[in-house]
Amino acid sequence: MKKYSSIIVCLFAVLLLSQQRVSANLSSQTDSDFLGMWTLSIEGGGVGWLEVHEKEGFMDANLLWIGGSVLPVSHVYMADDHTLVVTRTREIRKSQASGEARKHIMTYTLRIKKEGDQLAGVFTGPKNQGGEFQTSFTGVKLPPVPAAPDLANLKYGKAIKLFNGKNLKGWTMVNPESKNGFKVHKKTLINDPVQNGDHHIHYGNLRTVDEFGDFRLTLEVNVPSGNNSGVYLRGMYEIQVFDSHGKDLDSHHMGALYSRITPSVAAEKPGGEWQSLDMILCDRHVTVKLNGTTIIDNQAAYGPTGGAIIADVFAPGPIYLQGDHGNVSYRNIELTPILK
Q: What is the dihedral of CA 41, 298, 294, 302, to 10 degrees?
């Protein structure tokens, strides 16, 4: 009996040592220096966002890269040289000589080092027509989002009419070299990105010359059936403008904080009708009323949305309107600063 007891003790010791080694390996793969949320300033002027967290003993991450949505990454791990490696994939279809399309998975890799309080990294991946691209970026860690502000006790300054109903005074293109599809007609700011032929013409986004801190923004918008646009608060947070009447709730539908916050209730009107948006941005929290109904109630904005032009969540920024997505009209655009 003592013989079997000794064997059991030895097996238990081996099992315990094995578990300790597994735990040590998991700890070595999880570097707390990288945990948290980071805003990314990308070569060429793009903005991104990376969230690294632990999930069930392993590292995991979500990524926003310039445009589109915040999405889970495919894999994240620590390399031996203290480099954080993040990969994401996307599926494309490639035409073959036979004329048939073949599914293909493209993999993109971010290799990231921590330098002092910041990140420095390189994003690499395949070009669509062959070869490889490399894009450098830096990152700054975001502090935790503060408690939600007391909206009932906010103090406001004097209201500012951002659109005079006559011309584009006070507005400019985000990229001065891009084509402008905005015009003023009958006291309405109209975007009409006309396309001719098969070649897509890229139109630019329109922004205010002035920049603002926290504020309340009200406007009316008319988005025709099948079209979409977006209103960017401080050049960072897109409130989606989209003909989503009759569709299920989604973080990409009318009034949403794009890909981040889904409206609590559907309050949009059918495409082609004038609708009202009432938005408050305060202390990194967003409130949205659509047609008089609160659809986002003082919820945290954890980082920029796709298409952001500013990475610093504390810096003043412009109001900007998407110009390349479709037909849309705006009127009665008014901003009231929040006093602090």
A: 30
Per-residue model confidence as pLDDT tens digits over 200-242:
788 999 999 999 999 999 999 999 999 999 999 999 999 999 9
Of the candidates 233, 203, 239, 194, the residue with the CA atom closest to the CA atom of residue 315: 233
Q: pLDDT (tens digit, 9 = 90+) per residue, 1-34? A: 444 444 443 434 433 444 444 333 434 445 789 9
Closest CA to 322 of 163, 162, 178: 178
Q: What are phi and psi of 129, to 5 degrees?
A: -105, 20
DSSP string, 239-307: EEEE--TTSPP-TTSTT-BTTTB--SS--PPPTTSEEEEEEEEETTEEEEEETTEEEEEEEE--S--TT
